[in-house]
Amino acid sequence: MTLDARLVVNRPGFVLDIELTAAPGEVVALLGPNGAGKTTALRSLAGLTALDDGHVTLDGRRLDHEPPEHRRIGVVFQDYLLFPHLTALDNVAFGPRCRRVPRREARDKAREWLARVGLSEHVRKKPRQLSGGQAQRVALARALATDPKLLLLDEPLAALDARTRLDTRAALRGHLASFPGATVLVTHDPLDALMLADRLVIVEDGRIVQIGDAATITAQPRTDYVARLVGLNLYRGRAEGTTVRLPDGFSLVTAVPQEGPAFVAFPPAAVSLFASRPAGSPRNTWPATVTTVARHGDALRIELSGPIPVAADVTPAAAVQLELEPGRAIWATVKATETTAYPA
Amino acid sequence: MFLTLPLFGLLWRAPWSTLPQRLTEPGILAALRLSLLTATLATAVSLVLGVPLAWLLARTEFPGRRLVRALVTVPLVLPPVVGGVALLLVFGRRGLLGSWLDTTFGVSLPFTTAGVVVAEAFVAMPFLVISVEGALRGADARYEEAAATLGAGRWTAFRRVTLPLIAPGVAAGGMLCWARALGEFGATITFAGNFPGRTQTMPLAVYLALEQDVDAAIVLSLVLLVVSIAILAALRDRWVAA
């Protein structure tokens, strides 16, 4: 149940070209901004969008010329697409029925799957009588009841409110863990990706920009999009020892020496702000101007302009003391030991 | 006002005193039975041919699709008498297909009950096709995609997912089609003639009676009116309200 695919889809003004692999039992998340081509990638895996080039191979079998109904790929759609005229039970039994399982057996199997997702009480309900979280679970049961070799989830939690999302995410995590096949999950929510996936594939503008596990991605982002997702300040420059020179002439000092193209990343909490130039202190010190002040959890997130754009987190008390408001000129510092530098 | 006034005129002029005797005349019953039978058969034919055609028009891309759609609506704008003449030219004993049907199967459509059905279906089917195509375009095609990922071929997806979703549209189209077929006059009289018991449907009987006995024509019209309104109302409550 190993997936090996290269997906190329040409659209006017947009080209999707990504390579994707997934091992049995592995959950791979395609993470990216809206319009990056994630859903197109998923649709082409399922056979709903034709490939212009590339291949889809599952268990060594080429599938790219098979119609969707012969691919044995289960899909949970973003808005679930439960058949409105069928009960939850018949929705789940639909897949087995299409595989010529006798009606009784298909219904038994559907009942079993609905029990597994905790919906035994709701088998007779029509989709419009189900809550969002319940509909999501029916959609998952419906996809899994076909015994797919590959499971595709398109923004599985996007349609849910925050509270339901939390419970459903935890439940989904459990079901994915017990699913023996490969799973590809599409999401624009980093939390979903980090919580559910073993491996993250970051897609921007139809291309893969970074692949890695949650720890690598969150510690060493390689694009502004990823850095923003994981809440880091990220700069790209050329390293000479512990100095990384940025394209606009500004330099950052890091703790670990590097050579050549490099990234420097540091969290907003590592930035300290001072009313006047601090004496004899950290290596990275520069004058900056406050552009916005916004709540961010318990802290305040301060966006600064200056030689480099940077986000800083300060306590409300510090903000009051420093009189932080848009337009205020201050000094920013970052200790070299609080930065992370890695090759670009 | 304009739409209902003629109906009141019909009621006002009705020969109420002699109504019971006139209603039991055998000719009326035969014409009524024939009308209901042929309109229902024409609707069945239209459903069998029209629903797949509507599906092709709404869901697939093929060369000449726009032309086919334009051709489907031709019977709508064509005067029914012209349609009847056209049918004669094709299915007549010397017609394009008619001569072949005659020599191969010994079947001749014109001036038979089957001919009535053909004429009515020809005129009424576009109503069904247009209505079903509209319903299909309104239905979310992604349900069919979802069905496909669950292992359903095109036919299964259509039968088990699409058709139930567009059922109200099909029912409405079927009703329009049936009502149009029930009232069909021009194509029927041209293609199938006016033989009592065989091809004389209610509208033909009304027309014929009008030349001899106005009261009989009014009675026939009333019967046609009552029957069609009753059946449409019954179906409407059952299908469209749900």
From TrEMBL, chain A:
EC number: 7.6.2.9
One cellular-component annotation, GO: membrane
Gene Ontology terms describing biological process: molybdate ion transport
Pfam families recorded: ABC_tran, TOBE
GO molecular function: ABC-type ferric iron transporter activity; ABC-type quaternary ammonium compound transporting activity; ATP binding; ATP hydrolysis activity
Residues annotated as domain ABC transporter: 3-230
Keyword vocabulary terms for this entry: ATP-binding, Cell membrane, Ion transport, Iron, Iron transport, Membrane, Molybdenum, Nucleotide-binding, Transport
Mop domain mapped to chain residues: 279-343
CDD domains: ABC_Carb_Solutes_like
Entry-linked Gene3D superfamilies: 2.40.50.100, P-loop containing nucleotide triphosphate hydrolases
SMART domains (UniProt xref): AAA
SUPFAM superfamilies named in the record: MOP-like (SSF50331), P-loop containing nucleoside triphosphate hydrolases (SSF52540)
Protein name: ABC-type quaternary amine transporter
TrEMBL record, chain B:
Entry keyword set: Cell membrane, Membrane, Molybdenum, Sulfate transport, Transmembrane, Transmembrane helix, Transport
Residue span, ABC transmembrane type-1 domain: 32-235
Cited PROSITE patterns: ABC_TM1
Zinc-finger recorded as keyword: no
InterPro entries the UniProt entry points to: MetI-like, MetI-like_sf, ModB_ABC, NifC_ABC_porter, Sulph_transpt2
Residues spanning the membrane: 36-58, 70-91, 111-132, 161-181, 216-235
Superkingdom classification of source: Bacteria
Subcellular location: Cell membrane; Membrane
Any single Gene Ontology cellular-component annotation: plasma membrane
Keyword Ion transport: no
Membrane topology: Multi-pass membrane protein
Alphabetical list of NCBIfam families matching this protein: Mo_ABC_porter, modB_ABC
Record function comment: Part of the binding-protein-dependent transport system for molybdenum; probably responsible for the translocation of the substrate across the membrane.
Family named by the database record: Belongs to the binding-protein-dependent transport system permease family. CysTW subfamily.
Protein name: Molybdenum transport system permease
Natural source organism: Paractinoplanes ferrugineus
Lineage of the species this protein comes from: Bacteria, Bacillati, Actinomycetota, Actinomycetes, Micromonosporales
